[in-house]
Design brief:
404 residues, mainly alpha, globular, single chain, 0% strand, 21 helices
Length: 404
């Protein structure tokens, strides 16, 4: 994962977050018949929405008032959209993306909008997995502003997700002359982690984090999360735990991505109760509710109601009518519905769009559970071609490998 947003200036106010924050939906029991879920109890709580209070929402309200008076003010619209996107990263509420799109709508037909409008449009397209559109938007931005570090970081994040590691290296290399070495190094470490150099990437991050004590919280949380994921891939569980905890401590508000990654780590280690504790007060984002449900299932708790609600929320993805959330659909079908064949179809649809370790795991585990080993071969080939260092994925690939 690479930071998808960066505010530049020598460790000034910057924001770095996960490359691909999956706010995804999956297939549930209630969705199997395509009928909407109707609770039997009128008092049943289907979802608790985050409280819209505090300084951030006050700032948004003030910006909304200003924008209402000047709806073509690009600076106001871009700043309002940025704040919605920042909230989305910690809450996972897709309505926040819609709000950001609404404020950018005056420029929707503009092929050459103001700089910050174009950046926000690219980030929205990235979030919605419209990677080609996001890539094209960023290329136009960088043609005009070749020293824009945020644009290069976001472009690198997209290239990593699309498994174009050569392009991602080039993107990161542009940061060397225009950004702090910590940011440029973190960008490159994200690429190395997926292309046969995970040990070197982890060594750099661990040493950098130990040596640099004045990192802004968002930068520190980003690098700690990245270090945790690489340590986990290398099979260094104690180091991974240390970095995940440090990432949580550094973050003013942990992102959905961080919470999901740490929850997966705990679940892979058979620590369901710890995962439940981690997610007990987390925002009601689909990726987090899926992991909470799985943790409760493994802890022996009754998850029927939670699965029903998730099925209702993720119905379109489960019916195959919406593919943006195919990752979550595969997760839900495999781990909560015990339907590996259905999970495999969603996992393969997702793999056609993005190539992160969670995506590879879903294909491999679904194919093994469904006894359809041939379907997993694209992932096996990706692991081999890129020399991906990941102990667990290599173990799964060995089981899934089809002899020539």
């Amino acid at each position: 994962m690479i930071g998808s947003e960066l505010r530049v200036g020598r460790f000034g106010r910057r924001r770095v977050s996960a490359a691909v924050l999956c706010c995804a939906a999956l297939l549930g029991t209630a969705a199997a018949s395509a009928a909407p879920y109707v609770p039997s109890d009128a008092q049943q709580v289907l979802e608790r929405l985050p409280v819209r209070g505090g300084a951030e929402w006050q700032a948004i309200a003030a910006l909304q008032s200003e924008l209402a008076q000047a709806p073509r003010d690009a600076d106001l619209a871009a700043e309002l959209a940025r704040r919605y996107l920042a909230l989305f990263r910690v809450q996972g509420d897709p309505r926040l993306i819609a709000y950001a799109q609404r404020d950018l709508s005056p420029w929707s037909a503009d092929s050459d909008p103001p700089h910050d409008i174009a950046l926000r449009r690219a980030e929205i397209a990235q979030t919605e997995h419209r990677f080609d559109a996001a890539h094209a938007e960023l290329e136009r931005v960088l043609t005009r502003s070749p020293r824009d570090a945020q644009a290069w970081l976001t472009l690198a994040a997209i290239d990593v997700v699309r498994a174009d590691y050569a392009a991602a290296r080039r993107d990161c290399s542009r940061l060397v002359l225009i950004e702090d070495a910590t940011i440029a190094g973190g960008c490159l470490a994200s690429v190395q982690a997926m292309s046969g150099e995970a040990a070197n990437a982890y060594r750099f991050l661990d040493e950098q984090l130990a040596a640099t004590g004045d990192l802004p919280p968002d930068i520190a949380s980003w690098l700690e999360t990245l270090a945790a994921e690489i340590a986990e891939a290398l099979g260094h569980e104690r180091d991974a735990e240390r970095h995940y905890r440090a990432a949580l401590s550094a973050a003013a508000q942990p992102s959905v991505y961080l919470l999901a990654a740490y929850a997966d780590f705990l679940l892979h280690a058979d620590r369901a109760e710890d995962a439940i504790s981690l997610l007990a007060d987390a925002p009601p984002a689909d990726p987090l509710l899926l992991r909470l449900a799985l943790a409760e299932k493994r802890a022996g708790r009754d998850v029927a109601q939670r699965v029903d609600v998730l099925g209702y929320r993720l119905q379109l993805a489960l019916d195959g009518l919406e593919t943006t959330h195919a990752r979550e659909a595969a997760y839900f079908a495999l781990y909560l519905l015990d339907r590996p064949a259905q999970a495999l179809e969603s996992a393969l649809a997702n793999w056609a769009v993005q190539h992160e370790t969670i995506d590879a795991r879903l294909v491999l585990e679904s194919a093994l559970a469904a006894n359809r080993l041939a379907a997993a071969q694209p992932v096996v080939e990706w692991l081999d071609a890129n020399r991906v260092d990941h102990v667990d994925l290599r173990r799964l690939a060995l089981q899934a490998r089809v002899a020539p």
